[in-house]
Design goal:
three-stranded antiparallel β-sheet; about 100 residues; 3 helices; globular; alpha+beta
């Protein structure tokens, strides 16, 4: 999830790095990092990196009613910085949530 262990709204990151529904042992998401999911999607489907990221960012955001993504001065940012050392590798570097940075 790119965040440190602890509660984050309705879910939390346990000390082992699992994303669980807050206060329960139940998984709240995948047991693999999102980068692995993006790599798997790009291997399985003929899609670009932009399309793959859209599947895991834009589409879920729309389902949650968060249609717009915009960077503007004096507003909290939510960003992910990654590097792609080869076409089949996708490595998370840092994540910014509401203007607070976390290292991968």
């Amino acid at each position: 999830a790119g965040l440190p262990p602890g509660r984050h709204g309705d879910w939390e990151i346990d000390p082992a790095g699992k994303v669980v529904v807050a206060g329960t042992p139940y998984l709240a998401g995948s047991n693999q990092p999102l980068t692995v999911g993006i790599e798997n999607l790009m291997k399985a489907m003929p899609c670009s990196l932009d399309q793959a990221i859209g599947c895991v960012v834009r589409t879920p955001a729309k389902l949650l009613g968060c249609d717009g993504f915009e960077l503007a001065p004096n507003t909290p940012a939510c960003l992910t910085i990654f590097r792609r050392p080869s076409p089949d590798r996708f490595l998370l570097q840092r994540t910014c949530v509401d203007g607070v940075w976390f290292d991968a």
